[in-house]
Design goal:
heterodimer, A: 125 residues, mainly alpha, Arc Repressor Mutant, subunit A, three-stranded antiparallel β-sheet, 5 helices, B: Rossmann fold, seven-stranded mixed β-sheet, 28% helix, 21% strand
């Protein structure tokens, strides 16, 4: 720090994760798994004003389509646990829609595996 | 630093509102070629939730036989493949170290199965990752990543060395090649389908 008041609020790597999450705890992991698909809720086209920069950033990215929780962590560079907590809070606030992956069941698995197999064959021959 | 990247249309999941997301793990020891494999087959630039490994951290890992490799993934990287209008497949890769146990639990939960990448010259290094996969109860296939200059290895000797079940598929692949990687993945999915019947 060289400046007389070297306060740099944008230096998020100097902020402990629980500060970014305002001390909130991890959400239910089934609700926000790595491959839960997330998008902005259409009812909240109006830009909310009381969100943290991190929440705002996530909401901005989500506004153009669906991404998985893992992709949101990858694109923002935020730790996965932090992203989960922020997404849970945004979902609670009605800003986001989430599509958790279907629960695994033998029949569903077989159908999905068949679809994956056919898809791979169609794509790569 | 919080970055708010503006993403192109192709970054988003096509038909996301109706898609079911599934995942397959691509696992293997340090520097075996997981990132290359995922990169060769993913429709998006592979993403990672952690930084590349720093020099300080390198000293922790066993680097013998991997000269020339300066960075590697410490946590988890992943790619995506849109299979159809109904299914989007995510491929998650992580090394087989116990210290990433939380990440392993996240990855393994709900996964369809795992492809274990193996370096034929460093078979013993694959024991830990195969143990982990079995511990999480995941079905898996072995993909022997063919490295330049490595002689082909007798499949029977390899099965014996890795202590595989008779029906565990073993394929050879070149992780740099899209078609070859896709073939390895197809072998795994066909096996998973057999197991589901």
């Amino acid at each position: 720090m060289t400046g007389h008041d070297g306060w740099e609020p944008e230096a998020a790597e100097l902020v402990r994760p629980y500060v970014i999450t305002r001390g909130r705890d991890l959400p239910d992991e089934q609700q926000l798994s790595l491959i839960t698909l997330v998008t902005a809720s259409p009812e909240h086209a109006q830009r909310p004003t009381r969100l943290s920069p991190e929440e705002q950033s996530l909401l901005d990215i989500c506004s153009a389509g669906y991404l998985s929780v893992a992709e949101l962590a990858g694109h923002t560079g935020l730790p996965l646990g932090v992203v989960r907590i922020l997404l849970a809070s945004l979902t609670e606030g009605g800003y986001l829609i989430t599509r958790p992956p279907v629960a695994r069941a033998r029949l569903a698995d077989r159908e999905i595996l068949e679809e994956v197999l056919n898809g791979l064959r169609a794509k790569f021959g | 630093m919080v970055s708010a990247p503006s993403l192109g249309e192709q970054a988003y999941v096509r038909g996301g509102a109706t898609q079911t997301a599934v995942k397959i793990l691509v696992v293997g020891h340090f520097a075996v070629g997981k990132t290359t494999f995922i990169g060769s087959i993913s429709e998006i630039e592979p993403l990672s939730t952690e930084e590349t490994m720093t020099r300080a951290a390198e000293a922790v890992d066993d680097l013998k036989g991997v000269q020339g490799k300066t960075t590697t993934t410490v946590a988890m990287d992943f790619g995506r493949l849109t299979i159809s209008e109904r299914v989007v497949l995510y491929l998650f890769g992580t090394p087989g170290q116990q210290r990433f146990v939380q990440m392993w639990e996240d990855m393994a939960r709900g996964a369809l199965g795992a492809l274990v990448l193996v370096d034929p010259e460093r078979l013993a290094d694959s024991f830990a990752v195969i143990d982990l996969i079995e511990q999480y109860g995941l079905d898996y296939a072995i993909a022997v990543n063919h490295f330049d200059g490595a002689p082909p290895r007798d499949e029977r000797a390899l099965r014996e060395a890795l202590d595989l079940l008779d029906d565990t598929p073993v394929v050879t692949c070149d992780a740099r090649d899209e078609k070859s990687s896709a073939d390895a993945l197809t072998t795994l999915v066909r096996y998973l389908l057999d197991r589901a019947h």
